[in-house]
Amino acid sequence: MAKIHMTLQGKGGVGKSTDAAFIAQYLKKKGPGSLNICTDPVNATFAGYKGLDVKRLDIMENDEINSRKFDELIEMIAAAPGDVVVDNGASSFVPLSHYLISNQVPALLADMGRELVVHTAITGGQALFDTVNGFVQLVTQFPEETQFVVWLNPYYGPVEYEGKTFEQMKAYLNNKARVSALVRLPTLKEETYGVDLSNMLQERLTFDEALARESLTIMTRQRLKIIQGQVFGQLENAMVI
């Protein structure tokens, strides 16, 4: 069954586009790849990855988000022969979530032989509570046909509160049955791994593009290869990807 991977999280700047880029790269490396769509009306970070051939879907009309334009998104998904990766911005989180739920899109996709997989990011630091609340909002509002993958991003600090990891928090324990997989992004040393990955992401390069750059040092490429292996290894174990 083809998978429709959507990144959804109401908090901005938590790594949604990075997650989408990693999923698209993994699917491309694994087989035929995916149709990649960016619906972020503000930043369009995902669309900046030239190596992923991301389609930009304009959902704005008169400086406002027009939910009816998401109809075009469903048409694009229906026409795709395989998996689809959709990156959605924080500013369109509410209208897209409402559209998907009110139009019973998860059930519609199931009837079309496709499965909706929602990817949501949880970060440490100041955004912890906002992202955890966003996760709870999603799993309690979306129907049972929806699969969830939680991405734990330690970029702003450990994903924990008062000594409890995300897996020990009530928000997770109460909704554990809805979570198909956890993807833990690695904690990276800023002066080496962190700088190398940050530079790659800022240039909107895929791992393959970066690893092919002879202008990068041997050890920079080696560290990026290690990060790729860590992330892709987890995606390989996630049965819904």
- Domain count: the total is 1
| Straight-line N-to-C gap | 11 Å
Helix segment tally:
9
Rg is 17 Å
Structural class: alpha/beta
CATH superfamily grouping: P-loop containing nucleotide triphosphate hydrolases
Mean of pLDDT: 94
For this structure, the CATH topology is Rossmann fold
Instruction: Tell me the fraction of residues in β-strands, as a range.
Output: 15-25%
SSE succession: EHEEEEHEHHEHEEEHEHHH
> What is the 3D form?
globular
Q: Which regions contain 5 or more consecutive residues with pLDDT less than 50?
A: none
Topology:
Elements: E1 2-7, H1 16-30, E2 35-38, E3 55-56, E4 60-61, E5 64-65, H2 70-79, E6 84-87, H3 93-102, H4 105-111, E7 114-123, H5 128-141, E8 147-153, E9 160-161, E10 164-165, H6 170-173, E11 179-184, H7 190-202, H8 207-211, H9 218-237
Parallel strand pairs: 1-6, 1-7, 2-3, 2-6, 7-8, 8-11
Antiparallel strand pairs: 4-5, 9-10
Helix pairs in contact: 7-9
Mind explaining what this structure looks like?
Helix 5 links the parallel strand 7 and strand 8 (147-153). Helix 7 packs across helix 9 (218-237). The protein is built from 9 helices and 11 strands. It is an alpha/beta fold. The chain has one domain: P-loop containing nucleotide triphosphate hydrolases (Rossmann fold).
Task: Using brief descriptors, characterize the structure shown.
241 residues, alpha/beta, Rossmann fold, seven-stranded parallel beta sheet, two-stranded antiparallel sheet, 9 helices, 41% helix, 20% strand, globular
